[in-house]
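User: For a benchmark we're assembling, each entry needs the component sequences followed by a predicted structure for the full assembly. Here are entry 17's components. Please fill in the structure.
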Amino acid sequence: MKTEIIRMLKETDGYLSGQELCSRLHVSRTAVWKVMEQLRGEGYEIEAVRHKGYRLVQAADVLTAAEFASFMSGRQLGNQVDCNEEIDSTNNRAKYLAEHGAPEGTLVTAEVQTAGKGRRGRTWVSPPGTGAWFSLILRPEILPAYASMLTLTAALAVAEAIEDASGLSAGIKWPNDVVVSGKKVCGILTEMSAEPDQIHYVVIGIGINVNMTEFPEEIEKTATSLYIESGRRIRRSELIMSVMKHMERWYRVFLNTSDLTGLKEDYMARLVNLNRQVTVLDPRGEYRGMCLGIDDNGLLLVKREDETMEKVMSGEVSVRGVYGYT
Amino acid sequence: MKTEIIRMLKETDGYLSGQELCSRLHVSRTAVWKVMEQLRGEGYEIEAVRHKGYRLVQAADVLTAAEFASFMSGRQLGNQVDCNEEIDSTNNRAKYLAEHGAPEGTLVTAEVQTAGKGRRGRTWVSPPGTGAWFSLILRPEILPAYASMLTLTAALAVAEAIEDASGLSAGIKWPNDVVVSGKKVCGILTEMSAEPDQIHYVVIGIGINVNMTEFPEEIEKTATSLYIESGRRIRRSELIMSVMKHMERWYRVFLNTSDLTGLKEDYMARLVNLNRQVTVLDPRGEYRGMCLGIDDNGLLLVKREDETMEKVMSGEVSVRGVYGYT
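Assistant: Structure for entry 17:
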């Protein structure tokens, strides 16, 4: 009933009468009143006017199952949400749930991560309440070698969701950093459990810097938040569900062909490396070249100074380069 | 001390004097006597003769840390052993240990698996005491796409260990079934946890039918045991440690080049499909052809009836064919 009331409040422009709430939900006035009190306790600002009804002044920036459910409308990704106050890492929790049978589309969120993880065993700083830290469980029927493409798919979905929620232009630094004004606002860590010829599940961990007002000196040159860039606070539940919506669309496009044919164009339109000089840190020897985009499998196309073309795998190299997004 | 005593008993041809045991281990006669009693309780047959000492008549077929350690000599694989009486599956236990930091080479064994796993979610029947059910944790620095080659590497190691222990000729049905007289004696299930460009760990689960005297009617045409084929009982700890020894060698060879260049020849010498007709169950359409071996990445080379060559991935097909090994 709580979810239903949140959804009805959001959908109503103006006041929602207590009578209507009671008759649509088949409950008493007292029951409705109790839920309103509960929502207020969670931070929702709800105005009640005699003879008019209830009006949602401001939804709360809470990560609760009821709040997430109020956004859902028949989609699969984010359909089940596991909301946590404080856990070690949303990816670890998602892996645990996946091992125990959680279905595709299960979303895991946390207010605080005590041991947030970055790629290749690095740590990810995730202070309480200000960021969107979440992980999504997928069970695609693809080979493990194709999982890297899901990371690019997620980067595209995040960039679009950020743009929807904040109005900021969001670019992608290949393969999967989302940047605003040349600084990183989102990191993505994809993990999987697989047999050599079959994926059991993939967990896509996403960390978005949402409402931080400042960063430690060491990273303030390379990291930013949506609040710092846009000057306004973004509701995290709305942002996360927007990522789910965009991801749902692109994930289906990806599964159609098991490659990036269908989303390459949209990805490249956001690729900050495009038509710029990049330095490829190939273990066999660093080299420079011009970034010409990605191929259908998400490999970076680089034209070397001697005109030869290279296809760069994220596993073998890192890419350095100017990536200011204007 | 127990491990040391087992190893000394095994290394001594004839009698090992109590005096020598005491002085080498710096313990009392009573302490030695206690360990001997304990070993007899576990099933070791130990003769004690006054004025001569102790003699190992017959080692026990037990899976204990002390017994495994008595085989070790500076190798890495099998260096740490997690021995279990009854667990759901050795792969699940190994994955749990790997998630919690167990190092490369950790071996997990069980007398009974209550939910033994086969490939692609199938179950694996693992009755108590008669089979060698074990899993090995590896942490190779390779891409997830290369993990399938570890399965072929393990199949080669198992075939060689079976031959050493039983004298039977062991063949390999591509990619990773080990067969004796055309019937399956071993199955291998490889699972991994990975990022798209980095493996966290690989668990190689191996089930060998060792001392079964018969099989249920449904599978007796396709499955056999080392006992049925050779007429003698094989000690499982010795067989498992022999697999570790062979695996250690081939794993190093594999890591040298990150492909099967160095072990292709030995693998092909055991490949029961070689130069035989095979039916490839390609999802795009079944076809027949002649098996010409494997390539450096472990793909099966098949010449179709129209002379075109195919490279078959285990993820895409199964291979049917006569594979009697003579």
